[in-house]
Amino acid sequence: MSIGDWLLLFTAGLVGGVINSVSSGGSFFTYPALLLTGLSPIQASTTTLAALTPGNLAAVPEYWPEVRAHREKYPRELGLVFVGGLVGIWMLLTTGAEIFEDLVPWLILGATMLFAVSPIVRQWAQNSAPSLTDGFAGAALVFVFSIYLTYFGSGVGNIMLALFIIRGFGDFYSANAAKNLAMSLGTSMAMVAYTLTGYIQWLELGPVFIASAIGARYGARWARRVPLAWLRGFIIAFGLFVAAWQFVR
Length: 249
Known about the structure:
The chain is mostly helical. The protein has one domain (3-248). Helix content is 83%, strand content 0%. It is built from 11 helices and no strands. It has helices at 3-22, 27-36, 41-51, 53-59, 64-69, 74-128, 136-151, 156-169, 172-196, 202-223, 228-248. α1 packs antiparallel against α2, α2 crosses α3 (41-51) and α3 packs across α9. It is globular and about 45 Å long. The model has no long low-confidence stretch (mean pLDDT 81).
């Protein structure tokens, strides 16, 4: 790996870690950076999931008071994430690289669209969905998006954020704390599974792994002061660019 590749991956990891500590969308930056270093789509996707794991974990301490305030809810929600994550890993390993590569442009486009509409979903959750807090429908949605988390993962953080508001975590920061823990669990599972099956490329993972932890640790504090609308617009535009790039490759 050249110095230029290393700097590209470190920068992408730093940006991805900051963004993921705010909401989601960091993989829109790390995934194409890994592709540019010569990895296949499935290698880039699984390596991204592993590389962003420390970023999700590093953001947790900043939200620890919110975690403690809702600690009784975590066994149920993380249980759903664990089972759904196992299903997502099984799907990726059984469908293989060829089907995955055909799906990648659509997955990125869909992830960008989900990211774009997530504030609407979140507002609806706050205003109109209290009956879903302890119901089957809310649990089913957490399960379904946990499958997506370990299968591809891009853009799922904002939807998880809305779902945890539905599930009774209340304000933005409490739901964001739950999202960070759920993403940490899912990406940790994916890192173990895809390492054992040989998909993760550890040489390329290193700079992204380190930089995402740095970005997330300080990004969580920075996020409380920067207008989210600016960051969201940038992420959506970049996501559409990556999707278009993948369609024409």
